[in-house]
Amino acid sequence: MIHSLSHRQQGLLLTGGGALIISPDALLIKLIGLPDGEILLWRGLLTALGFVIIMLVRHGAGTVDAYRRCGWTGIGVALLFSLSTFGFVLGNQYTKGGNVLMILAGAPLIAALFSRLFLGERLPRRTWLAIWLCLVGTSLIVLDDTGVGSWVGNGFALLAATALAANFTLCRTRPSVDMSPMLTLSGLIVAAIAASFGLAEGGIALPSTDSLLLLVLLCLMLLPLGFTLIQRGPLYLPAAEVGLLMLLEVVVGTLWVWWILGERPAPVALIGGALVLGTLLAKGLYERRLERRLRGRDAAERELC
Length: 305
What we know:
Blueprint: H1 7-21, H2 25-32, H3 36-59, H4 63-94, H5 97-104, H6 107-119, H7 125-141, H8 151-172, H9 183-200, H10 209-231, H11 239-245, H12 247-261, H13 267-304
C-alpha cells in the first residue's frame, strides 16, 4: 500500500505517523513518576531491546547487514540521538517544560540552516512560512509554562534541538541508507551513562509493577516503533521538514495530558495547537495538489511524445 504513494507522501506518512505514536511520551513519563536517572536507564535499555525486535522482524537474517550498512555515519547518528535524549530529559529537570518545548520547536530552523550550509539544500518559501507559523503556534501552546528558567536547563534544551537537527541532517548525507538500526546503539549509550551515574549515587532501585508496565508500553513498544518511523523520514524528506512534522508530538502530547490528567490547556494554547495543525494540514494539501498537477503535466508531455 505505502509503495503506491509518491516518495514525498511516504516520508510524510512515516514521519507524521511516528510523531503521533510517540505523542503520549510526556503523559506516560508523568504517570511513571520515576527520577530522571532511572527513567533514562530503563528508557535506554527497553528502547534498545525494542529496536532490536523491530530490526529482526523487518530484516530477519539480514539484520547484521542492515547494521553494517550504516557505517561510521550511523555511529554519528546514534551519538546525536543520545545527546538529544539527554538534552530533553535534563532540560526538563533544570528549567520550565515550556522553555524546553519552545526551544525544541526551533529544531526545524536549525535543520534548515545545517542543510543549507552542509548539503546545499534550498527550501521553498512555503516551507519557511510553515516553519515560522508552527514556531508561533508552539510558542502559544507553552506560553503559560515559560519563564526565565535556568541557563543550564535552557542550554540542555538547545543541545536537544541542535542534536536532533544535526541527526536528521547527517542522515541526509547518505539518503539511500536507512539509519534507524543505529537507534539500538543510542539506547545502549543512554542506558550505560545513566547506569554509571546511578551506581555512583548509591544504586538503582527496581520500579513498581505499575511503573514497570507503563515503562514497557512506552519504551519497549511506542518509542521504538515511533522513532523507527521518524528516523526513516530523512530518506524521503529534507531534514527541516522532518523536524517540522515532529511538532505534531507537542500538540497531540498536550491533548493527551489534557484528556487523561485533566490539565486543561489555556485558550491561547488551543489557538496555538490549531495553528500548528492547520499549517501542517494546509501545507500537506497544497503540496499534494502540486504533485498531482506535475504528474498530470508529465503524463500530457509523454502523450505528445
